[in-house]
């Protein structure tokens, strides 16, 4: 009996086809169902294979439309395409640099409210119930339970600039936040962030977290915004005592 096909093997096979030119930059990749049928694997394994391509920067996911080859597929140094030409390296810097935007580091506003720097952005919004990331689940006290989750991909005329995700645990009563704690850090993108921002996982993102607390202490809301660091400048304004 042959051993089961693993997602790594399927990912490698699809990657080879992309580099061979079977799927051109920007072209749609087979759906999860198609990959499952083609390689005789389960949907879970097929999804892992496609997500692996996304995490490598080879593909990008478009919510509701499927998975597509990135504009600049990732290729090892020296690898060539079907005609012998060197493949384009991923996310090369354009001749004219993309203008850097300034955004407010302190939001203190509902997740769907425009804030300084957001006025000209348009959003692709999805709503679902899903587990929050471990660090956020600990703060909200939700464990592994699903919570109402709103995701917004914010874009300007040049493309995506931020992924904003809003988590609100189920509570019997809502109350205005009396304390808002913010934190900003820099790290490389997660697979989800890379897909939403149409970049690779090697890209640095500025992560701005905003936690809202009630008077009696519990956290009632959490908003995480991941910005493409090369296009965003965060500005913080406050009144001295």
Automatic annotation (TrEMBL):
Keywords: DNA-binding, Transcription, Transcription regulation. CDD domains: WHTH_GntR. Residues 71-120 are annotated as: Disordered. It holds the Pfam family GntR. The keyword RNA-binding does not apply. PROSITE patterns: HTH_GNTR. SUPFAM superfamilies: Chorismate lyase-like, Winged helix' DNA-binding domain. Residues 4-72 form the HTH gntR-type domain. This is DNA-binding GntR family transcriptional regulator. It comes from Murinocardiopsis flavida.
């Amino acid at each position: 009996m042959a051993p089961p096909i693993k997602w790594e093997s399927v990912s490698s096979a699809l990657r080879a086809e992309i580099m061979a030119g079977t799927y051109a930059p920007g072209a749609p990749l087979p759906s999860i169902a198609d990959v499952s049928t083609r390689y005789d694997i389960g949907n879970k394994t097929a999804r892992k294979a496609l997500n692996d391509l996304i995490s490598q920067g080879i593909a990008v996911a478009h919510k509701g439309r499927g998975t597509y080859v990135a504009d600049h597929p990732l290729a090892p140094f020296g690898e060539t395409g079907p005609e012998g030409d060197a493949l384009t390296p991923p996310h090369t810097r354009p001749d004219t640099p993309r203008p850097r935007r300034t955004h407010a580091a302190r939001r203190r506003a509902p997740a769907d409210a425009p804030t300084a720097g957001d006025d000209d952005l348009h959003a692709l919004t999805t709503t679902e119930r899903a587990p929050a990331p471990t660090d956020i689940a600990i703060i909200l006290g939700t464990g592994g339970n699903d919570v109402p989750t709103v995701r917004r991909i914010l874009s300007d005329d040049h493309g995506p600039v931020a992924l904003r995700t809003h988590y609100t645990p189920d509570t019997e009563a809502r109350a205005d936040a009396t304390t808002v704690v913010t934190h900003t850090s820099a790290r490389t993108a997660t697979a989800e962030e890379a897909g939403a921002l149409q970049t690779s996982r090697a890209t640095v993102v500025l992560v701005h977290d905003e936690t809202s607390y009630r008077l009696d202490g519990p956290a009632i809301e959490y908003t995480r915004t991941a910005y493409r660091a090369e296009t965003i400048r965060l500005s913080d304004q406050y009144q001295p005592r």
